[in-house]
Write a structure and sequence with these properties.
2 domains, alpha+beta, single chain, elongated, 3-stranded antiparallel beta sheet
């Protein structure tokens, strides 16, 4: 598979390995994995940034390079990188401030096996609190010569980070100048931010801004007794972090308790899955109380 960022990957390999670069690109499974995980550089709104899995690779390969194992070849005797050091380094990287431990512990390996089920190696080797990157995936034999691609792996991920940072910096710059435009230009500007090729996080942020403004001056009147009706403004809140794996609930409105799903997919099965998640659990304290009372009555009846 080739996409917009594939050229960057090939450029890094060409700089480091010259005429052997194409063979390394097609022969290295870890390079193929990076190629799959960097497709969101083309700003497809359905593609996540994938920083968790990429950074799990990054911090381990960086540790490998920092200790010169790509030169000395004594990695088999290494006692392993300590989790807390890797975790701290992940969170120092751009977009990594909120990352958890899941990618280091199992998710990256699981996804790699999904993409390459016939591969004999898993990328991350773990023993209790110690971690290694599988060196078999960093050493490639090309024309009867072994080459180490560790530095190229780091450079490819660095390039991807720069591309993602650049897209957000441009977005912020454009937003800062938007107030100087006329009404038609502002409307077109917002429409452009909702196009399919826009980054998923920008798409979600803009969707929230539109809905929040739409509901900001709307009111409802509600209550449980006719003489205790109260007036409330509708308020829209984001649930969790932007582009998080939040189970399909992106925004919630109070006091109605209305949920909003932000997506462009036409697969209706996804909507039924999201509805199912909500229906499984009580939505309010009032609902919880009703269920508890019903169970109590059933117990008294001997049911």
């Amino acid at each position: 598979m080739e996409h917009e960022f594939t050229k960057k990957i090939k450029d890094v390999l060409k700089t480091n390995f010259g005429n052997s670069s194409d063979k390394i690109f097609s022969g290295s499974l870890i390079i193929q994995y990076l190629n799959l995980k960097t497709k969101s550089a083309s700003r497809d709104s359905k593609s996540r940034g994938s920083f968790a899995n990429l950074y799990a690779i990054y911090v381990l390969v960086e540790d490998y390079i920092n200790k010169d194992y790509h030169k000395t070849g004594n990695y088999a005797g290494y006692k392993g990188a300590i989790f807390i050091d890797l975790f701290k380094r992940q969170r120092e990287l751009p977009f990594g401030q909120k990352l958890q431990n899941h990618a280091l512990n199992h998710r990256m390996n699981q996804e790699f096996k999904k993409f390459f089920p016939l591969c004999d190696f898993i990328p991350i080797i773990r023993d209790a609190n110690k971690y290694w990157f599988n060196e078999n995936l960093l050493k490639i034999k090309i024309d009867n010569k072994e080459v180490n691609i560790a530095k190229s792996v780091i450079e490819i991920i660095d390039e991807y980070i720069l591309v993602k940072q650049d897209s957000f910096n441009k977005f912020i710059e454009i937003c800062q100048g938007a107030h100087e435009r006329n009404k038609t230009e502002k409307i077109n500007f917002i429409k452009d931010l909702l196009k399919p090729k826009v980054d998923a996080r920008i798409f979600e942020i803009v969707s929230y801004c539109i809905l929040k403004y739409y509901y900001h001056n709307k009111k409802i009147y509600w209550g449980f007794k006719i003489d205790e009706i109260q007036e409330d403004n509708l308020k829209l809140f984001k649930t969790g972090r932007t582009n998080a794996n939040d189970g399909g609930i992106d925004f919630v409105m109070k006091p109605l308790g209305r949920f909003f799903q932000v997506t462009e997919t036409v697969d209706v099965n996804k909507y039924f899955l999201d509805i199912d998640k909500i229906e499984r659990y009580p939505i309010s304290q009032h609902r919880k109380k009703s269920i508890a009372l019903k169970k109590l009555k059933n117990l008294k009846k001997g049911i």
